[in-house]
# Entry
Amino acid sequence: MRLERRLKPTINIDLTPLIDVVYQLVIFFMITSVFKTAPGIPLELPGAATSAAVAVSELRIVAVSEEEIYVGRDRTTAAGLDVLVAKAVQAAGDKGLKAVLEGDKNMPYQLMVTILDALRANGVDGVGLQTRPGGPAATGTGRGAAAPKGAP
# Structure
């Protein structure tokens, strides 16, 4: 007489490896995410058709007006800008500090020159200008769209 086995295999899904993989993915995305570190100041950046993403930079300067300039997270004025830039350069050491300058599109040109002078005087030669992608063509204003007052 032949006996049949009546034991049926039980099917279990082990969720431990799945939980481990999801946990590792969460950690990976947390580490590789880029968070904006600039102060939350609403700026209307100028456009540039040839703008490109800038790699990680060491020093971020946000210029709102002559009375409100941020070097990293520190607020200063145009007169005190040189001191904060010197501190940032000294803290960076000899590793060749790079800077990114953000400014409102209505910012005076003289303020931009003052900031660039302060950076150059302290040995920062690599300066990137922050723009928004799309350039003037995306906003409907092209080259020569606005003629100066009194121009024919």
About this structure: Confidence is low (pLDDT under 50) at residues 138-152.
